[in-house]
Amino acid sequence: MAVRATVSRFPMDADAREGSGLLWGVTVTPFAAADENGRAPSYGSSGDLLPRCENCWAYFNTYCELEQWSWSCSLCGNLNGLTSDAVERYSRSQSCAEMMSSFVDLELPSQDSSEEAAMQACPVYVAAVDLSASEEFLELTKSALLAALEALAPGSLFGLATFSHKLGLYDVQGPIPVVKNVFIPPEAEGTLPIELEDVMPLLQFLAPVETCKDRIASALETLRPASSWERTTAAGQGLDGVLIGGRARVFAFLSGPPDYGTGQLDTRRYGEQYASKGEDADRALLPEQTPFYKDLAAVAVQAGVCVDIFAVTNEYTDLASLKFLSIESGGSLFLYTSTEDSTLPQDMYRMLSRPYAFGCVLRLRTSTEFKPGNSYGHFFPDPQYENVQHIICCDSYATYAYDFVFENNVGFSRSKSDVPTIQIAFQYAVVVPPQELSNSGGVSTNRTKHSLQRRLRIRTLQFGVAQNIHELYDSCDPEVVLSLLVHKVILASLEEGVREGRILLQEWLVILAAQYNDAYRLIQYNNGSSVRSQIDVAFSQCPQLQPLPRLIFALLRNPLLRFHEEGVHPDYRIYLQCLFSMLEPSSLHRAVYPVLTSYATPDKQAYPRHSLSRAALITSGSPIFFLDAFTILIVFYSSTADPTLPFPPPHDCLLRTTINKLKQERCITPKLIFIRGGQDDASIFENFLIEEQDVDGSGLTSVMGFVSFLEDITQKVLEFMK
C-alpha cells in the first residue's frame, strides 16, 4: 500500500492552508505490494482479533500507547480495554504483526468451506464480443482473447457471448462449439420472456479453461460479422441481463456505439453545430446522455461483477455514457482508434497476468483535528457509510485520492502532543490457486479447488506539522499535487465544461504564486502598486515548487483540457479522464509532462532529463533522444546523428534495456516508435516539444509557449495582488 501526501508536513490550521495556496491530501495505491519506499507489509493471521477503538473504530497499531490492560487510540486518544487473550498475545510482541509494523496485512478467517464456496472462489471471465463489426475488429478481438486464455490461471472459468441484433451464448464443453441465440428487440425498452439461465445453464456457459482451451479457441474462430440485412430484419424478445455472483470479470469488446435495443445511444449529438448556436461543445458532449449504464454499473457492483470496456473504433461511441459501467465497477476503459497498430492483445495479457483483489472495501480515518473532504477514483461509494468505498476489482496500480479539511478553526496545536495521523484500512479477497491434493492413501489426485482468502491490510501514518509557510512549501510533493489537481479539473470539466476546468487550473497557479511571493517578501510596493520586476512565478527560492508551473502548462496543453474546436475527440478526452484518474503520481507526471532523455550512443546515456523544447535538442548536441510519454515511447535519431550509429537500437543495448524495463513496469502497453530525423515523419515527436510553440495567430491560449505562459501568469498575479 503506497501512500503519498501533497505535503509531508501538514498545515497548522485552516488559515495556514489557505494562506499557502497548496492542496492538502493524499494518494493511496492500496493493493501495491510495498509502500512508497519499497517496504513490504508485516504479514500475519487472525485479523478478526485485531482490537478496535470503541470511539472511532480505528484499528490498534504501533503508534497506540499500550498499557497492561488497555491501549490509547492514536487517532482519537480514547482509552480502550484489552481482552485477556489480547493481553497474552501482546506480551509476546514479536509474534504479532501489528506490534512489529504500522503496515500490516492480516488474514481473516474463512466464512465458508463448502463445495459451493469453492465454486464461488473460481475466477470467472466472460467475453462479450460485438459482431456488428468489421473482420479486422474480430481478428483483433480473437487475438486478444487467445492472449487472455494464455494468461488465465488453471481452474478459471470462461464464457463467450456475442451481441448484435441478437445475444449469442456459447457452449464449448461438448465435442464442437454450440451457440444459442436470443433475439433482441429494436425497441429501447424490451424485456426477455425467458431467463438466460433457461437458454443456457450457467455451468454449461462457463467452461473450465484448462480442459476447454482448444475448444474455446475453436469457438473464437467461428465468429463472423453480423450482416446489415440480418440486423434490420431482426425480431424477438429483448435482453434482460446476465448476473454472475462472486468474483467475475466481464470483457466488453465494442466496435462502435450501442445503437440497438435497450441502452442504445444517439450519436447524432456529436454532429451538432454547437459553435453556430453559441453553445459549448465540450460541455454538451462530456455528460452522459442516459442513466442506463450508470444504473447497470450499480447492478454489476451488487452482483460482484467488474466490467472492462475495450472500444476499437474511430467513430463517436459516446464513452461519456458507457464509462460508468467500467469505472464504477472497478474495471478499466481502453480506447484503440485503429485495428492496425492496436496493443489490445498485449494489454489483455498484461492485465490478466498481474495479481488483483476482489470485493474490496477501502476506508480512510484521520485524527480528530481534520477529516477527509472529497474522495476520487474508480470506486462505488457506500450508500450508507461516509468515507467508505467499494471496489469490485483492484490491481496493484489502481490509485485513489483524498483531500483533507479541518474539523474546526483550531487546527493542530504547536506542542508535540498533536500528531496528525491517518489510517487506511483495505479489506479484500484474493483467489488462491488450487494446490495438488493428496488423499489418505498418499496418492495424488487431479482435483482442483480454488479457495477464497479474505485479508485486511492496514497502514497507519503520522505526519509532522509545518511551523511556518516555508516549512510547508519545502515539504511539498509536486507529483501528488498534480494528481489532486487532475481529479479536480476533471470534475470541473464534467460539471461546467472544459473552459471552466482550464480557468480553475490557471487560477490555482496564480493564487499559489501570489501567496509564495507574499511569503518570501518578493513584492515591493510603490505608492500602493506592486513592482512587476519583483514577481517570481518560477518559484526560484523553493525547489519543491519549481516543477509546478511546467506541470500546469503541460496539463493545459494536454488533450484532456484542449478545446473541441482544436480537434480533440470527446471519446479520447473521456478515455484520458479515465486513465489519468487511476494513475499513481509518478506515472501521471510522465503522462502529463513526458520525460526526455538523450543518449550519446545506444549504450551510453548523455543527459537524464531535458525540457520539452527544440532548443534542448539543439544545445545538447546528442544524436539520440528517448521520450517517455507513458502511453507512447519514442526513440528519435537527430538528422545530424552519425550514420554509423545502429538504427533502430540493438536489442542488447542500454537504451533497449531501459525501454523493456519501462514496458514491463507499466499498467498498459505503450506504443514504441522509432524515428530517423530528416528521413521519417517526425511530427508525432515534435508535437511533444511544447515549450517553444508560441501563439500561431489563432489567439488560443493553448498554443502558447512556456515563456509566454509565465509572462501571462505574472500579469495575472499582478492583477490578483492589486
UniProtKB/TrEMBL annotation:
Annotated signal sequence range: none
Annotated Zinc finger Sec23/Sec24-type domain residues: 51-83
Gene Ontology annotations of biological process type: anther wall tapetum development; COPII-coated vesicle cargo loading; intracellular protein transport; pollen exine formation
GO cellular component terms given for this protein: COPII vesicle coat; endoplasmic reticulum exit site
Domain of life the protein comes from: Eukaryota
Molecular functions (GO terms): SNARE binding; zinc ion binding
InterPro entries, A to Z: Sec23/24_helical_dom (IPR006900), Sec23/24_helical_dom_sf (IPR036175), Sec23/24_trunk_dom (IPR006896), SEC23_SEC24_subfamily (IPR050550), vWFA_dom_sf (IPR036465), Znf_Sec23_Sec24 (IPR006895), Znf_Sec23_Sec24_sf (IPR036174)
SUPFAM superfamilies, per the entry: beta-sandwich domain of Sec23/24 (SSF81995), Helical domain of Sec23/24 (SSF81811), vWA-like (SSF53300), Zn-finger domain of Sec23/24 (SSF82919)
Entries under Pfam families matching the protein: Sec23_helical, Sec23_trunk, zf-Sec23_Sec24
Residue span(s) of domain Sec23/Sec24 helical: 477-588
Entry keyword set: Protein transport, Transport
Occurrences of domain Sec23/Sec24 trunk (ranges): 122-351
Family the entry assigns: Belongs to the SEC23/SEC24 family. SEC24 subfamily.
Name of this chain's protein: Protein transport protein SEC24
Originating species: Cajanus cajan
